# Entry
Amino acid sequence: MGDRMATTPARGPLTGVRVVELAGIGPGPFAAMLLADLGADVVRVDRPGGAGLAIDPDHDITNRNKRSVIVDLKSADGPARVLDLAARADILIEGYRPGVAERLGVGPEACHARNPKLVYGRMTGWGQEGPLAPRAGHDIAYIALTGTLGMIGEPDRPPAVPANLLGDYAGGSLYLVVGVLAALHHARAGGTGQVVDAAIVDGTAHLSAMLHGMLATGGWQDRRGANLLDGGCPYYGTYETADGKYMAVGSLEPQFYAEFVTLLDLPEHADARKDRARWGELREAVAARFKSRTRDEWTSVFEGSDACVAPVLSLREAPHHPHLHARGTFTDHGGITQPAPAPRFSATPTAVRTGPARPGAHTADVARDWDAPGLLKDQDLLKGQDLPQDPELTKGLE
# Structure
């Protein structure tokens, strides 16, 4: 490991860490992207025909900072090629349904026989065990069972769907990354490798820890739009403006609320903060005021204040906000505007080093760098093949 660290250019705190990613969709690739952003050498093992995600590989940002090889795991020697990589890796990530990796010959037991210190990360929705483990699913179903979907939205409307951010990426990818890095620390401290079972249901439930504490003490009502942080509070929510756009309000503390009602010119509601009986009229007054001006006008009103009010921006607008622009929160690479790597490090800065890895584009380089010449066998036959999708592999999380 020391030699590897010495010869790899500095590119983030995970420089020198080798990761094998068995191609999938959703949270697994995002977790691998985060590791790659932090400097790990991530090799994505693509299969002939691709992963089945309806996106041009040149625009799949989750494959940035990675390298790609193509291996047909259904071929006679496909599993052996993956095991050769696993033998040289620190971390392996897969997102198949439970049991699939074992049937393919690349499960934890086979990998650990070659590399006892390997951290084997498993990304699924339901987890490796439990009644629903073999069933299909998507983000929305996972978060539905954990109670988190049911708490988002207005009380008199169906729960609002938070894209696939809450389950796939927050409850899934981020917990997988925390898990594999913790297990890597253990392995390097003289321990052995192990399996990390990252289930979206577990991670999403874990995210609601504070709310369960509040629920137990009566500080949170088990229904939508009735609480301090779920839109039930009139000074913590969103309001439409004159031009059909929105402002977000989070004036929770007394001093911030005081500034909020002052700038909104609602002095008669200065004492309505703690009086839930007045929350209805306060909401109506705030809504009417926001409706009287455009989003940009209100943005100017609250500029430089501590009222905790901000414009609700779209995906295309966000990169141009002065604060995000000044910080470089977004970056342009290869003609694609995208979030820059996060978080930031003072001694080992990160960057978008390469664009999305095209399937199989780095086979020769990886074979050389990882001393795995077996990867080169039959690569000319695999490149560009448009083989039928294998649902067992393509839809690992479904």
User: Anything to note?
Assistant: Confidence is low (pLDDT under 50) at residues 1-9, 384-398. The first strand starts at residue 18 and ends at 22. The first helix runs from residue 2 to 7. The radius of gyration is 24 Å.
